[in-house]
Design a protein that fits this description.
It is a single chain. By secondary structure, the chain is α/β, with parallel strands linked by helices. It has 13 helices and 11 strands. A 7-stranded mixed beta sheet has the order 1-7-6-5-4-2-3, with helices on both faces. The chain has a 4-stranded antiparallel beta sheet with strand order 8-9-11-10, with helices on one face. A hairpin with a 6-residue loop joins strand 8 and strand 9. The longest helix has 23 residues. The structure holds pyridoxal-5'-phosphate. The site of pyridoxal-5'-phosphate (PLP) has 12 residues, from helix 5. Pyridoxal-5'-phosphate binds next to helix 5.
Length: 354
């Protein structure tokens, strides 16, 4: 692997040639007293808050706020309708259907593969090692001239661990396509984000989301951090108003309560470690994997029976036992202290009844 990264080579021809849609709010974004340019309803909305005006297509206010928190200029930020939108845009911008491929490192987040299939892009799979780390040699062998993107997830879903930083850096330094690091669970991690590395690696795309630690999954806000050139490509392709006005207003309000988020995040870490200890003590739990996220992967003797038992008790976890390298595994999200106690109580009765 040697890195001679060139974004223009990577970009699909049709996207390079694309003249993006120019919305009313792109063409006039200042303040004016009479707005008759977007065929909106000038009277207002049948609600307490008015949503009759189209929102800012580039969400500058949100990005300025985020910029302060993340330490990245707004021009290096893309906001999407969940990070799933950013994943889909990556395929549409950089992968030619039926020609190109991406590398996935299972077990990992399922949307990379689904998005690849939707976009008719082949996936080359290089499984993680037994301790859920990158198989660097396998990845180097899998790369071919049509490999456009390598998707990494750290902390990884569903395994919960962070990838070794040096391994990720080796890939960044040597692969001349895009390296996507999905940091959906970074707030819970003992490792630091790769955001500071953006200035060093022009092929780096970092994904984060407000759906996890921020507690805003229902609002749908995903973030991509990358070079200005890559963010321009995202902006060219995205639907003009992909973040709605209600979402952006609520996200701005949420930032006022940053301390609350920090408090929950810290406590989730403490609860995670307590839960891991309790799970380890259960006889049907064979192994509890170390977690850097807000969930725990546990290998059990009979995942289906435990899953069904918990469903009967109205407790839902995720059965991941049919996923590569996760045989026998349940993925358990860390809940509130009460929820975690209900879970461990139920698992104790499961043990005594089985
Ligand atoms: C690793 C990872 N990335 C992305 C997402 C999706 O995030 P969003 O809600 O921003 O689409 C998830 C959701 O479970 C995830 O686990």
């Amino acid at each position: 692997m040697t890195n001679s990264f060139d974004l223009t080579n990577l970009l699909r021809d049709n996207i390079r040639k694309l003249t993006p849609y120019s919305s009313a709010r792109d063409e006039f974004s200042g303040t004016a007293s009479v707005l008759l340019d977007a065929n909106e309803n000038a009277y207002g909305s049948p609600l307490d808050t008015n949503y009759n005006r189209y929102p800012d297509p580039l969400q500058q206010q949100l990005k300025v706020k985020l910029s302060g928190i993340k330490g990245v200029p707004p021009r290096n930020i893309f906001l999407g309708n969940g990070s799933d939108e950013a994943i889909d845009i990556l395929f549409r911008a950089f992968c030619r259907p039926g020609m190109d491929n991406v590398i996935l490192v299972p077990p990992t987040y399922g949307m990379y593969e689904v998005s690849a299939q939707i976009n008719d892009v082949a996936t080359k799979k290089v499984n993680l090692t037994a301790d859920f780390q990158l198989n660097l040699e396998g990845i180097a062998e899998a790369i071919d001239p049509h490999t456009r993107i390598i998707f990494l997830c750290s902390p990884n879903n569903p395994t919960g661990n962070s990838l070794h930083r040096e391994d990720v850096e080796t890939i960044l330094a040597n692969f001349n396509g895009l390296v996507v690091i999905d940091e959906a669970y970074i707030n819970y991690s003992r490792q630091k984000t790769f955001i500071q590395e953006l200035t060093e690696y022009s092929n780096l795309v970092i994904l984060q989301t407000l759906s996890k630690a921020w507690g805003l999954a229902g609002l749908r806000v995903g973030m991509a951090f990358a070079s200005e050139e890559i963010i321009e490509v995202f902006n060219k392709i995205k639907p003009p108003y992909n973040i709605n006005q209600a979402t952006r207003m609520l996200a701005l309000q949420a930032w006022v309560n940053l301390d609350q988020v920090k408090y929950w995040t810290r406590h989730t870490g403490v609860e995670r470690d307590k839960l891991a200890t309790k799970l380890r003590a259960l006889p049907f739990v064979l192994h509890v994997y170390p977690s850097d996220a807000n969930f725990i992967l546990a290998k059990t003797t009979d995942p289906r029976a435990a899953y069904n038992y918990l469903v009967e008790k109205s407790i839902i976890v995720r059965d991941r036992s049919n996923v590569a390298l996760c045989e026998g595994c349940l993925r358990i999200t860390v809940g509130t202290p009460d929820e975690n106690t209900r879970l461990t109580d139920a698992l104790n009765t499961f043990t005594s009844e089985h």
